[in-house]
Amino acid sequence: MSVSFSSFDLSADQRTTLDTADEYARNELYPLAPRMDAEEWWPAEAFAKLGAAGYLGITVPEEYGGVGTDLFTSGLVLQALSRWNHAMGLAWVAHENLCTNNLYRNANELLRRRFLPGLCSGKLVGALGLTEPGAGSDALGSMRTTARRNGDHYLLNGSKIYITNGPVADVLLVYAKTAPERGAQGISAFVVDKDFPGFRVAQKLTKMGFRGSQTAELVFEDCRVPAENLVGQENAGVAVVMSGLDLERAMIAPICLGISERALELSLDYAQSRVQFGRKIADFQMIQAKIAEIYVAVETMRTFTYRVLAAANDLEIGGGGRGRIHALTAASVMYAAETMNRVLSEAVQIHGGTGYIWESEINRLFRATKLLEIGAGTTEVRKLIISGELLGKNA
Ligand SMILES: Cc1cc2nc3c(=O)[nH]c(=O)nc-3n(C[C@H](O)[C@H](O)[C@H](O)COP(=O)(O)OP(=O)(O)OC[C@H]3O[C@@H](n4cnc5c(N)ncnc54)[C@H](O)[C@@H]3O)c2cc1C
């Protein structure tokens, strides 16, 4: 049996989007994946090509250079990209969702017109900087980066860590405290251009998985950011963060789904070609059981991922960060990330020694485990969000 990637609940247009993006990713991005993994190589021209093919600015209206569709469509594209090159999928979601979509939803007209066309064409690469060396799960409370108004500029001081696209980004959405004494209510969001004086990439970080996706520590030393680059109101950054994180969580589950779908396909191929004891290993019931379990995991992941993407699709600007959608998006990524780990563990087992060899595709997928239990709020934080909503403790 060959695995169909189709899903019964997609409309004809949605299925076409998924299939077309799948074909694009297989032809254009899959061939880049081995070198990205081996060398942590960044294919600098890939984003311009993604833009030209209509895979950037999906949620941004056409008047700003975007495609003008929606979050669900964006999730389908990410699912397809992640089947064939999940490192590019991660770079894409940081650019497309964390930076571009957040800017579109929260920036004023001036900033939208200045930055969105370049982000939508792929001429500019975007990133988002929230996490700091001392502020991970407690990103808001422990944030030390400050922004002090100085005439028509703000001066940013501090550092950000584990920032996806950090080493290659042209435009960064950065959070800093404009009123540290007000805690989380004293945070503001800024658009930082990589050429602003006082900004630098302190170091590129080497990862165990998603290796072609570039990750960095960033430093701000009296970094001069024009006051007009403030996103939203001063000290109102917490709403931008919380709303953005809900959408980010809904959007990360498709990465887990795409990787898991590919793991199932590779496992089926391997089980039907590898011969031991004079028989294909697919003839052994214990291998059949693993395949059945992976299949059930992928199907349930797909159903839940789509359901939550659909629920998040029409989230109003400024919405989220609380209530049903806050719990649902946390649940979606929590389930998808944990299920993906199980899928890949069994998929590597089916591959035997081949699965343990670094260069094999299934090993590349296996090394993608864990990150999606950590980024965008850890599994533990997701559990706090879900139980907090159910028990009324998040207010
Ligand atoms: C490859 C990669 C890419 C990333 N990309 C970005 C990016 O683009 N932009 C960005 O801003 N950030 C990014 N991050 C950061 C990511 O969001 C953080 O790593 C994550 O939020 C966890 O923070 P931490 O690593 O400091 O862990 P910590 O917060 O130090 O957590 C350590 C452990 O303690 C647990 N813990 C913490 N608090 C509690 C609690 N209250 N109850 C129970 N357990 C708790 C955690 O769950 C975890 O198990 C990225 C991270 C990685 C690894």
Could you write a compact summary of the structure shown?
With 395 residues, the chain is α+β, with helices and mostly antiparallel strands. It has helices at residues 12-29, 33-39, 46-52, 71-84, 86-106, 109-121, 237-273, 285-312, 323-351, 361-366, 371-374, 379-391; strands at 126-129, 146-150, 153-164, 171-177, 187-193, 199-204, 215-226, 230-231, 275-276, 279-280. The structure holds flavin-adenine dinucleotide (FAD).
Structure characterization notes:
The chain is of the alpha+beta class and 395 residues long. Helices cover 50% and strands 15% of the residues. It contains 12 helices and 10 strands. It has helices spanning 12-29, 33-39, 46-52, 71-84, 86-106, 109-121, 237-273, 285-312, 323-351, 361-366, 371-374, 379-391; strands spanning 126-129, 146-150, 153-164, 171-177, 187-193, 199-204, 215-226, 230-231, 275-276, 279-280. The strands form 3 sheets. Strands 1-4-5-8 form a 4-stranded mixed beta sheet. The longest helix is centred in the middle third of the chain and has 37 residues, at 237-273. The radius of gyration is 21 Å and the shape is globular. The termini are far apart. Mean pLDDT is 95; it is low at 1-7. The structure holds flavin-adenine dinucleotide.
